[in-house]
Amino acid sequence: MFGNLFGKKEDQAPVSRHKGLPTPLQLRLGAAVRLDSILSKVLGDGRYLFELPEAGRILSVESQGLVDLGEGVKLHRFYFDEDWWLQVKTSGSGEGEVDEMHLFGFGDVLTPSSQAEFEEIAARIGKPTYSYADFSYDRLWGQGSAQAATADFEERVYPKEDASYAVRHQDMLHSRAIAGTTRPEFLLVSTETDEHDEVTVVHSVGISLEVADLEIT
Q1: Which residues contact 143 (CB under 8 A, 6 or more apart)?
Q2: Are residues 109 and 132 in contact, defined by beta-carbon separation less than 8 angstroms?
Q3: Of 161, 195, 205, 198, which Cα lies nearest the Cα of 51?
């Protein structure tokens, strides 16, 4: 009602409170993203555990995450209004050059109820292979047969309409080859600690993307 009194349209999109965030490929808070429909034909035949959004669906960026890995390397994470998120890795000064992109879908989220349960889960992370949803994924970070260290970093998350917050990550990336295609499937296992020291273990399954796979407005 008050919006009408002051001439503001009720369906007008709110303006983000966060200014000056990087915008690789013009990705940003509030951006609309649509995937090339050919991806559904390539990936939608049951070989992948990862499920694409249905063809033609528009995904809206509701939150943006930023990770500074040092030496000009950054991870940009764009969280959509559904269960998918896009990670863009850049390097160099300014906006940087896009090195790689991955589209992930959220899978299982585990919340350990005790230190013993957390240690049981953590004992699996970093092994040469990781079993998830009846599939085996090979570890991509670390060499040899011993358990490898995770990549540890802090992400600053900027929701479109709320205050930013920090998340501490301990991540490990895995992949498995898919017969008949050059696009492997990725599994990211992330132990996440929020600002209240609450710990969750998040599984995200995804694929790599090319710039041509995205339409951004």
Answers
A1: none
A2: no
A3: 205
Enter the DSSP assignment of 119.
Answer: H
- What are the CA-CA distances from residue 80 to residues 103, 104, 134, 199 (Å)? 11, 10, 27, 22
Average pLDDT over residues 135-140: 98
Range list of H helices, the chain: 2-5, 38-43, 115-122
Which pLDDT tens digit goes with each residue over 164-181? 999 999 999 999 999 988
What sign results for the dihedral spanned by CA atoms 130, 131, 132, 137?
Answer: positive
Nearest of 187, 146, 154 to residue 65 by alpha carbon: 154
Task: Give the Cα separation of 54 and 186 in Å (integer).
Answer: 20
Average pLDDT over residues 98-116: 96
Distance, CA of 40 to CA of 202 (rounded, Å): 25
Question: First vs last Cα of the chain: how many Å apart?
Answer: 30
- Residues 6 or more apart in contact with residue 20 via CB below 8 angstroms: none
Residues in contact with 98: Cβ distance below 8 Å, sequence separation at least 6, in sequence order: 24, 25, 88, 89, 90, 211
Q: What is the pLDDT of residues 65-93, one digit of tens each?
A: 999 999 999 999 999 998 999 999 999 98
Listed residue (142, 141, 143, 121) closest to 132, CA to CA: 121
Instruction: Give the tens place of pLDDT for each residue, 60-70.
Output: 999 999 999 99
